[in-house]
RNA sequence: GGCGCUAUCGUCUAGGGGACUAGGACGGGGCCCUCUCAAGGCCCAAACACGGGUUCGAAUCCCGUUAGCGCUACCA
């Protein structure tokens, strides 16, 4: 369809966007940061929602700071989150020859030039300008270096950098950002920036443009700390005669103090959260809400829902503060929302890692184990909470929490009497079910003229060693007759020992 | 300093000229439920940065101020 009607339809449907080739381009100088993960997520969501390819490029041109370990951490983080990339990873460092070729093209066309100014001279000029309260902007003055002298220096092998010549000094470089509206930079404010170092390796802006062109990237979605790089990159596209991609600049993530998120804010690596027992989908859900909203009151979403709802219109312009409390809450939501069969492997891995039980022993009592996980997940915010709570049901013996003992076993003789009576009552129970057990224990409390709590709390300590647990009858059922009676027996021994001494 | 970006409860946000007495969520406080802890339910406190315009009418549009953040490298 063509003509005015097609235009009308397109302009009315704000939720439709063209398919795009996007990329996530981290530099391997550390772990995968939550900010990076969120950038990756938005790129990934865009492609899942509107089509295209999500590419991964490792920006390792800064050889001094890049490490293989960091590259691995980035892969692991993305894989854990489930943000898979659609084509083989591109390593920027491997594209050195193309970068140099692009620089040469620019040089040959007179759109870039060699600059023999030493670092020391540059520093001095900057300091000078600063002292006068001015700003130093590098511009080649053609009179500064005659052509024959440049040739001489080249022959001599003098070190030089290649700078891009900012065109059209009186012009403006601007673009329509998907997140912001129009952003414009006067060209006069842009430095003649370096594109090739004196060691003949490319600088970020050149490498990015060269690679984005080679990879066919049509939408660049990245942090808004790159806004001031964008005019430079747009100029480079122009000089190379290539069509511009679209740009979307995402807001930063800050710590609780409003400053850029860093290590002193606590855990900022995706891996930290993985090891704390966070669920990847909860992490994704939380991150998505940091700088994006589907509109209305929607908050807790499955991955599928996030994909369906995603649209650049909901992207926020303002930096968001990372609130670990809400992340935990979100994780709790996902933990109770997800199916038991999806949660089970995650919990099992953590339990096995903790040494509490083996995978085989859990598999043997699969149904029982699922019921246990279901019972414990209600009061857990992270997977590790479940592991901690699971100990009284998996281990043969437990330790008594001193606080629990002090609080609930204060009156040793009374508790000894009570626990002995409880044991005897339970010994007579024929059907080990919650309702039967409840009836039995409540009538026991009645006979002693006390409320249920007075009986259940000391019993809870005997069974779990703790003051907190699921409902006492659930605990009895989950532990089973043998283990429960064993625990009570142990408690009686323990209390008797105290009385004797 | 220059350039750029941003501005709604403490935090994440809804809202896009009248539906606003500004909604939801986290966190906080209270109550209910209750054998403990959670979960759940109900309730409370809590915001349109400021000043000018435009308009019959502004949280919403424009300008300015202020504040915060980012960039200002032969880092990415």
**Residues in helix, %:** 40-55%
Number of strands: 12
Strand order of the largest sheet: 1-2-3
Structural class: mainly alpha
Radius of gyration: 33 Å
Q: How much of the residues is beta strand, in percent?
A: 5-15%
Average pLDDT metric: 90
Biggest sheet architecture:
3 strands, parallel
Pick out the low-confidence regions: 1-14
Report the principal-axis shape: elongated
Tally the helices: what do you get?
Answer: 21
Terminal Cα separation, in Å? Answer: 94 Å
Could you please describe the fold and organization of this structure?
- There is one protein chain.
- By secondary structure, the protein is mainly alpha-helical.
- Helix content is 52%, strand content 10%.
- The protein has 21 helices and twelve strands.
- It has helices at 4-12, 34-50, 68-81, 96-108, 119-131, 147-156, 204-215, 230-240, 270-275, 280-289, 303-309, 324-337, 340-354, 359-364, 366-377, 383-394, 402-408, 412-427, 434-447, 452-464, 472-500; strands spanning 20-24, 52-58, 90-91, 112-115, 161-164, 172-176, 182-186, 194-196, 219-223, 246-250, 253-254, 320-321.
- The protein has a three-stranded parallel beta sheet. A three-stranded antiparallel beta sheet has the order 4-5-8. It has a two-stranded antiparallel ribbon with strand order 6-7.
- A hairpin with a 5-residue loop joins strand 6 and strand 7 (182-186).
- Helix 15 (366-377) packs across helix 16.
- The longest helix is centred in the C-terminal third of the chain and has 29 residues, at 472-500.
- The chain starts with a helix and ends with a helix.
- The model is unreliable at 1-14 (pLDDT under 50).
- It binds one RNA strand of 76 nucleotides through helix 5, strand 7, helix 7, strand 12 and helix 12.
């Amino acid at each position: 369809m063509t003509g005015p009607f097609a235009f009308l339809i397109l302009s009315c449907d704000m939720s439709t966007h063209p398919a795009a080739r996007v990329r996530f381009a981290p530099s391997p100088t550390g772990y995968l940061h939550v900010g990076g993960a969120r950038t990756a997520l938005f790129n990934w969501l865009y492609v899942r929602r509107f089509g295209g390819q999500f590419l991964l490029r490792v920006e390792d041109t800064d050889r001094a700071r890049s490490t293989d370990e960091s590259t691995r951490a980035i892969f692991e983080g993305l894989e854990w989150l489930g943000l898979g990339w659609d084509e083989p990873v591109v390593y920027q460092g491997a594209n050195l020859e193309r970068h140099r070729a692009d620089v040469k093209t620019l040089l040959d066309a007179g759109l870039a030039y060699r600059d023999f100014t030493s670092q020391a001279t540059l520093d001095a000029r900057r300091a000078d300008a600063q002292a006068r309260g001015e700003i130093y902007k590098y511009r080649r003055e053609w009179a500064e270096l005659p052509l024959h002298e440049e040739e001489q220096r080249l022959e001599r092998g003098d070190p030089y950098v290649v700078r891009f010549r900012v065109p059209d000094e009186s012009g403006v470089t601007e673009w329509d950002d998907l997140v912001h509206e129009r952003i414009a930079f006067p060209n006069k404010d842009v430095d003649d920036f370096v594109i090739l170092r004196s060691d003949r390796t490319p600088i970020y802006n050149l490498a990015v443009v060269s690679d984005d062109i080679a990879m066919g990237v049509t939408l660049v979605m990245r942090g808004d700390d790159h806004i001031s790089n964008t005019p430079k990159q747009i100029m480079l596209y122009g000089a190379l005669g290539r069509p511009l991609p679209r740009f979307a600049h995402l807001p930063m993530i800050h710590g609780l103090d409003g400053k850029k998120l860093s290590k002193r804010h606590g855990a900022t690596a995706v891996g930290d959260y993985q090891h704390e027992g966070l669920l990847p989908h909860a992490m994704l859900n939380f991150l998505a809400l940091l700088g994006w909203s589907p509109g209305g009151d929607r908050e807790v979403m499955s991955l599928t829902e996030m994909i369906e709802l995603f649209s650049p219109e909901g992207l926020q312009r303002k930096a968001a503060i990372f609130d670990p409390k809400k992340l935990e809450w979100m994780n709790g939501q996902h933990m109770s929302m997800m199916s038991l069969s999806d949660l089970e492997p995650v919990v099992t891995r953590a339990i096995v890692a903790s040494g509490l039980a083996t995978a085989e022993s859990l598999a043997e009592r699969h149904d029982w184990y699922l019921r246990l996980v279901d019972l414990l997940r209600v009061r857990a915010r992270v997977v590790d909470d479940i592991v901690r709570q699971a100990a009284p049901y998996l281990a043969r013996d437990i330790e008594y929490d001193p606080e629990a003992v002090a609080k609930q076993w204060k009156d040793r003789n009374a508790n000894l009497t009570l626990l002995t009576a409880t044991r005897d009552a339970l010994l007579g129970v024929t059907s080990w079910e919650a309702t039967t057990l409840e009836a039995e224990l409540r009538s026991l409390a009645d006979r002693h003229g006390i409320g249920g709590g007075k009986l259940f709390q000391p019993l809870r300590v005997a069974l779990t060693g703790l003051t907190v647990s699921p409902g006492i009858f659930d605990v009895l059922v989950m532990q089973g007759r043998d283990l429960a009676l064993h625990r009570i027996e142990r408690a009686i021994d323990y209390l008797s020992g105290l009385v004797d001494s």
